[in-house]
Amino acid sequence: MSVHDDYRRRGIGRALLNALIEAADRWHGISRLELTVFTDNEAAIRLYRQAGFVTEGVLKSYALRDGMLADAFAMAWLRT
Ligand SMILES: CC(C)(COP(=O)(O)OP(=O)(O)OC[C@H]1O[C@@H](n2cnc3c(N)ncnc32)[C@H](O)[C@@H]1OP(=O)(O)O)[C@@H](O)C(=O)NCCC(=O)NCCS
């Protein structure tokens, strides 16, 4: 997910993520959501943690980013 630079820190990312979780949980019966996020993406990691995602592990050298291999977190949300 991505929010345009000019509209960040206004609650849009949180609203989008919460809408996705609510649709998955209440309308589709999905009990587990997964995502990957680069380990240095503090803004996204904070957003995901606030929404209830937990870190399940580190994916070493997950993807090539501007010529360097970067690590990513595997995160998941589970219905409680
Ligand atoms: C991550 C992203 C989607 C957040 O969208 P947003 O609309 O700016 O986020 P919100 O305003 O809803 O913020 C929700 C929470 O996210 C965290 N957050 C968002 N931007 C942050 C920043 N620059 N620094 C630290 N925390 C941040 C905060 O915890 C925030 O809660 P708070 O404002 O109560 O502190 C946005 O920064 C983005 O598009 N980034 C580039 C694309 C990207 O990295 N996507 C994720 C790929 S895995």
TrEMBL record:
Origin: domain of life: Bacteria
Keywords assigned: Acyltransferase, Transferase
GO molecular-function terms, A-Z: acyltransferase activity, transferring groups other than amino-acyl groups
Cross-referenced InterPro entries: Acyl_CoA_acyltransferase, GNAT_dom, YpeA/RimI_acetyltransf
UniProt name for this protein: Acetyltransferase, GNAT family
Domain N-acetyltransferase: 1-80
CDD domains: NAT_SF
